Amino acid sequence: MLPITAQANDTTWQALQEGGLVILMRHSLAPGIGDPPEFERGRCRTQRNLSEQGRAQAAAMGQTLREQEVTIDAVYASHWCRALETAELMDVGEVEAAPWLDSFFQERGEQSARTQTARERILDWQGPGNLLFVTHQVNITALTRSGVGSGEMIVVRPAGNELQVVGRLSD
């Protein structure tokens, strides 16, 4: 597996080393789309879960963040097993499950409330280190209006009432 790289240049890594940013990460590779009809939150065997490649991807991402000396002050993850496992395998801090990061792919009525709460958390962040949010494609797209691949990270800076995209990290 290739190391994580900042697209375009090293500016993203430098900004992360300085702190005060939020990393919006889509969980690592979990083949498929959505969840099976028998899905139950909290019961991993009913969900779409990480593949072996996804597990390796998560561990490698965490290793790269440590090698780049990126300080992570807090880690929040969706309750979905694939997001929690991604965050845990990264091993960059204690993981706290956050309902405001839960997917709304099959619960479209939750989009506004979850997006607003996540946005408020981002805009309130001042550092000194960085926050890591491990969530889902729909959540990140709602916040940034940008697509994101499995295991990809979009780094944002709270800027007044806006989220300023600093860069992307992918493997």
Describe the fold and architecture:
- This protein is α/β, with parallel strands linked by helices and about 170 residues long.
- The chain has a seven-stranded mixed sheet, with helices on both faces.
- It starts with a strand and ends with a strand.
- Mean pLDDT is about 90; it is low at about 1-10.
- The protein has helices at about 10-20, 50-65, 80-90, 110-125, 135-145, and strands at about 5, 20-25, 70-75, 95, 130-135, 155-160, 160-170.
- It has one domain (about 5-30, about 40-170): Phosphoglycerate mutase-like (Rossmann fold, 3-Layer(aba) Sandwich).
Tell me the layout of helices and strands.
Blueprint: E1 5-6, H1 11-18, E2 22-26, H2 52-67, E3 72-77, H3 81-90, E4 95-97, H4 111-124, E5 130-135, H5 137-144, E6 153-159, E7 162-170
Parallel strand pairs: 2-5, 3-4, 3-5
Antiparallel strand pairs: 1-7, 2-6, 6-7
